[in-house]
What does this fold into?
Amino acid sequence: MSEEKKKKGSFFGAVKEFVYGVAAHDSARFALKSRASMEHLFILITMGDMLGVPILPPYYSLRLLPYVVPQISTWKRRMLKEKDLTDGLA
Amino acid sequence: MVPISLVKIFDEFPDRRYIMFGGKGGLGKTTFSAATAYYLAKQGKRVLVFSVDPQASLSDIFKKDIFGKGPTEIMPNLYAQEIDADRRVKEYQQEIRKKILDMYGMDKIPEEIESYIQAAAAEPAMEESAIFDEVVDIVVHGGYDYYIYDLVPLGHALYYLSMASVYDEWIDKITNLRQQMREYDQVAAVIRRDKELDEDAILNELLYIKERINKSSGILTDKQKTAFFFVLTPEEMIINDTLKAAELFAKFDVPLSGYIINRVLPRELKNQHIPEYLKNRIVMQDKYLKVIDEVFKGQILASVPEMERDVTGLGMIEKLAEKMFY
Amino acid sequence: MNSVVVLILGLVVAFIGYRFYAKHIDTKIIKSDPKRATPAKMYMDGVEFMPTSKNILFGYQFKSIAGAAPIIGPIIAIQWGWLPALIWILAGTFFIGWVQDYSSAMVAMRNDGASFGGLSHKLISPRARIILLSFIYFYLLLIAGAFGNVVVSTTIALKAAPMAWLFLTVGGILAGQMIYRWRKDIILTTVVTVVIAMAGIWFGTLAPSDKILGLDLANSRWLWAIAAFVFCYFAAVLPIWRFALPINYVASYIVFLGLFFGIIGIFILHPDFTLPAYTDFSIRIGPIWPIMFVTIACGAISGWHSIVSSSGTARQLENELDARPVGGGVMFIEMMLALFALIIAGTIYASSAEYGAAIAKGPGGIFAAGVSKFLGALGMPAALGRSYGSVMMIVLAITIMQLVIRFMRVATSELLSDVSPVFRNPHIGTFIACILGMVLVMTGWWQYLWVLFGGANQLMASLALLLVTAWLMSEGRSAAWAFWPMIFMFITTIAALLYTSFNLLQKVISGAVKGEALIGNTLMGLVGFFLVIAALILGAEGMKALKRYRAITKAQVASAAKA
Ligand SMILES: Nc1ncnc2c1ncn2[C@@H]1O[C@H](COP(=O)(O)OP(=O)(O)OP(=O)(O)O)[C@@H](O)[C@H]1O
Ligand SMILES: [Mg+2]
It folds into this structure.
């Protein structure tokens, strides 16, 4: 009985996810993409003295460092990654 | 030439509790800081004199090793402090490391993050911004009637001041950017029907940083609370440089209270039997004192004579203070 | 034959293809490993690389690939008879379609989520990247032209469409404000805006365009072509969340509700095919091979999917095992969509003559009539159903169109900003793309445009398969399952493009066409030739790369044997 209920729940869950995928996933993705390009800029500005641009006093930019630890590696990757035109399509 | 009295200035503006002496290297900023601290302490005020200079010399003048020891009592009501910038930076780095480890449950700082922490600490501006930050701590902490800054030679303070407004603008920009990012986060949350977002810790940090930078530069430029004195000596080069510096400071809204002349050879020597060499110097000083009188008309607050020996130890400080405050 | 038999046949093919063939490839050759970290996990940045559940990706992939093409293709292709179209839809999907969609996701996943440009650079040659990108530009231009034509002919054929389209646009813009500005609850937003769009469909039947604008304007190709490209212009230059995204959001509900109930309608009505199973080897647009193959377009195999798979889906799959349902499974659903369109075209007209009269006005009318019929089985009034079908068609076409124009804008600034900084201005790139598209729409005969688009699209597929083959060989995996489809598609599409371009240009040279058609034929012919040349260069470079890989593998096998 509870097995069945669970199965039913997961089926509706799947349908819900499917509908979300059809209708909304790319909108959410877009919002996150815009956010990410800003994050990119943000890290460039705050951590930029790595590149020799003193935009914040180094003492304070160090304060922000803990919050952007996870982003730093993806940020570097994005900086280094060649932008490809086809990325715009999907 | 009769200068307006320094004593009067202190009496007239009791709100000016942040006292600074600026001027080229070696003219007597530290000496005057100590003498002023001595004078005010004798008046019954609680005074902290602290050094903002990585090559601090308060220990020398008070003949007491106070480096990195926090506020140290020199005599009743007089406290002195030398900030150990190096240590502060090191502790700070450690703090950052710990925060990272705690936040992400790591047991080791990732390599590129570590190299970033070290690179940032090696920046020439690091020590200064660390000291300025500590100054904010000191001032915010309170507990004294007067705070006397033993300043670094002109350049640095000016640099910090000039950057403060730039920093301020940048932080505004960054904060804006951050807020926009947050909006997109919220949109994504709306689309996915996520629950409320956490607060953006970075936004709070930015606000904190903005406040700190504004505070530390604000003190330097606060007309109500700050008295800034220039130290100069009767020499051609020094006069010219002081003029230039004063102009710059005015540009950054530093409230100039006046000028103090140091190392004036006692006139009475003239009538004594002294070597030709010294006579010539006195003649030269006479000439430049006249120039100073013209150029800084009405702004000369004191004229301090050349002492018989270098000013170290409370005894000499007292002696000099008597000449300074009459 | 009965339409339900066709659907069941489709399900059987999908079942066997997905359950056995795809499973075999996935486990035995690709060796998908649920434990291997996917790029989404390895490079997770919460944006492009983002582990996402397979159900969501299933929906995302479906939405991204199910455009107008799988519907229009069969409607046109039935001119050769429904049987060849049916066979090609089933066989094409089974042997080639899913192979491409699945393997392009896989190759990108196993290469750190690299995009096609990057992969062609890495696996084939540096030059390949530039050629591929310019190929894509003209390929997309053909999409803009072909789909623009569909929009225009649909708005003219169905007078309810313009009002429904307008309401949908308004609903979409409102959705954008509600989501991004006011951050209203998404369910509320959805309900309000979808209801507005639905109301537009109903209102369209009350206020047809000829009543409001007069017959002349309502029938003006100029008017609707301008409307379509102005729409795309806004979509390309406005912030994407104000226009393009939310309109698509609202539209997706309209489209998928229509499809869902339409298919139920087929089961209820289960009509017989009324059009002949086979008509002729050669019809006006050309012979069955190669032209019908490219006409079917996305219903059998589509290059577009490979771009979605590699640049979008591959970076979000959280488990290698999900590539088969998402990359492969969705293609079988797309196949069902093509069968749906084939059934519409093949069953709703009493005779070939009736169908012929309808197709002359464009595919939109046929599709709308079909939607109307099958939704009618569920009780929807016929006029309302036609209005519904027309807006579905427009939306399906224009969604892809505006994406394409937006992309062409970016491409213009990227490819030409070195020539002159003017091209960096987004309005310039968009304007160029819109004008080029407009010229194609206004001067080219839509069926030729469609064939060229279909050819370019499947040529793109063949290039994707070339990349996949190169990758498989570079890894020493068996590659025949991608290699032979690639060869087949390459020859077929080159033949189709050459045949059509040659035809078009010959008419120009012999002076058989004048005026608008002269411009249209010349432009289409030249684009066709350009695509052929670019593809031949890519093919040659690709073959060189394949030879290189084969030599390496042989050497490895030899040294392994020695040891
Ligand atoms: N009036 C004076 N008579 C005799 N010696 C003096 C007098 N004023 C200053 N000195 C001596 O001059 C030297 C430099 O003075 P002090 O350290 O105060 O200068 P400063 O401006 O703080 O220098 P820095 O820029 O290096 O901090 C000290 O040895 C001090 O004792
Ligand atoms: Mg000093």
Notes: The radius of gyration of chain A is 20 Å. The longest helix of chain A spans residues 58-80. Helices of chain A lie at 2-23, 25-46, 58-80. Chain A has a mean pLDDT of 73.
